[in-house]
Design a protein that fits this description.
The complex is a heterodimer of chains A (about 290) and B (about 160). Chain A contains twelve helices and 14 strands. Chain A has about 290 residues and is an alpha+beta fold. Chain A has a five-stranded antiparallel beta sheet with strand order 4-5-10-6-7. The radius of gyration of chain A is 19 Å and the shape is globular. In chain A, α5 runs antiparallel to α8, α10 runs antiparallel to α11 and α11 packs across α12. Chain B is α+β, with helices and mostly antiparallel strands. In chain B, strands 2-1-5-3-4 form a five-stranded mixed beta sheet, sandwiched between helices. The chains are: A alpha+beta (about 290), B alpha+beta (about 160).
Amino acid sequence: MKPAPFDYVAADSLDGALEELARGAGDALVLAGGQTLMPLLALRMATPSVLVDINRIPELAGVRRLDGSTRIGAMTRQAQIRVDPVVARHVGPLAMATGFVGHHQTRNRGTLGGSVSLADPAAEYPATSLALGAQIEVRSMAGGVREIDADDFFLGPYTTALEPGEMVTALRYPDWPEGTVFVVDEVAPRPGDFAFVGLVFILAVKGGIVSRSGITWFSMGGKPMRSMQAEATIWGEAVDGVDWAAVAELAVSETDPIDDIHATAHYRRTVGKHLFQRVVATALAKRGAQ
Amino acid sequence: MSRHEITVKVNGEAVSATVEARRTLVDFLREDAGRTGSHAGCEHGVCGACTVMVDGVAVRSCLMLAVQADGAEVTTVEGLADETGKLHPVQQVLREEHGLQCGFCTPGVVMTLAALTAQQPPPSEEMLRDALSGHLCRCTGYQGMLRAARRLARGDIGKATA
């Protein structure tokens, strides 16, 4: 199908984009890489009155180290995140997740901020950002700048805490301790397709004791799902003594998958438990290799 | 609905048109520029048949608005062979390895492989394989394309044109 009619404005500055968004009065959408939004327009699941294109604003792209965290501009393309040395060094799970985001051709245009703003429940970046404890920087004409915890940002399918007139300008990823291990993995019918089940697992261990973890799922509910009880259960435990099969059960019980044309909820839960065990085994093997 | 005057360099030739904001790049290429080599398949980013190079990078032309390509250099499958009709190495290798059958998906496949093999350092077979996953082909089962990718990765493209 073809998109329904809309107006188009290419902003050449951040302030210009925010002005256009404010003028759009909640019926304007930001066009970043377009790799989620353009299909939504073509399928007429989104029918904005105006698109504000932010591709010509250089300051919105790029990776920068801050004190104790890494800031990635919203317009940073997925192809860059996949190979960026700073991301690889400090935000490894995001680089690993990128291998599962769409295809080579879509990663050449798709952006971090676009994926996070649109919040497809099957998308890798929202779940990975949630597991990492990211802060989402948003701006508007009226409200200036604010940071939103990833925990408070994702509300449901394609639904976030963004207010009308607000746009995501960057994500900030706080550092995890040295020696943190992680695995992002998914089960999908073909590489690059939407996953049936996906898991992000991040584990920090200090002196043999689990000091922090991030366990999140994608395609396992209406939004990225965080298994907080599972995280709490392993916290403070000796990493070698954890009953991971029981943690897998608990972690899956904190998800809310649906039946759809691709897979049943039962299937997703069953595969989810296996995926969890596989991911944990891989993460622990990485730890052993350090 | 806004309309926009745009000029896009298509295979080295400037093409100007007034387009609706909602015009996709693939529709611009086919309808306004008359280059029908880029195929519109699913029109929502899944099949890869519309893949072209924008400023040297392989992208889905159904997932980009024509107005966004204003001022850009776009290469379509028509822009690869030289004026005497001598095929681009990617086209030649796909032909020799039977990397196509009905040909609907082929322009996209060619543009992805052409963009990647123009990169330095040259892509590995694994990278080419991964990039091919962005194309749906309902005829070939991909084996010919993979053989072509393997040859491209090792630079084995010297076979004389039949």
